[in-house]
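Bug #77: duplicate submission created two jobs. Keeping one. Sequence:
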Amino acid sequence: MSLNEDRFKVIRRIRPTEEADLSRVMEMYAIARAYMRQTGNASQWGTDYPPESLIREEIAAGHSFVCENDAGKPVGTFCFIIGEDPTYHEIFGGEWLDEGEEYGTVHRIASSGEEKGVGEACIRWCLVRHPNIRVDTHRDNRAMQHIIEKLGFSYRGIIHVEDGSERLAYQKSTKG
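Kept job's structure:
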């Protein structure tokens, strides 16, 4: 499946993040934090999350990606990891669709705000690469909830992230 398909309208290419992209990636996270504050979600990433050290680790591990528009400019970034996520070990008020099966996790989608549809393109890209995807978001992140639900993810329950705060957990499995 190619990223040139119509459903990836604004994104020409998604590629692994390189060290040279770091300042642009951090800029996009700052833009995303400002957007979240403006839309009633001030506490999810606070004033300085994610730290540059985490993004450097994700780049080194091959988990960080950037989305480029038609001009080749990075307009989005996210983390995608295939394998177990420790924050998903316990789920409250629900259950995973297929406990024990391998899954991919999408974290920290951010956009520069220059293009529409970046979040959706990121998640669709992940769904092409793995048939079982989990994602979580803050209760106040209505924009991400809209994207997740639009793409057919089902609400699975509550998980707690490293700092103990709760997140709404979703999953989509296209395994047949």
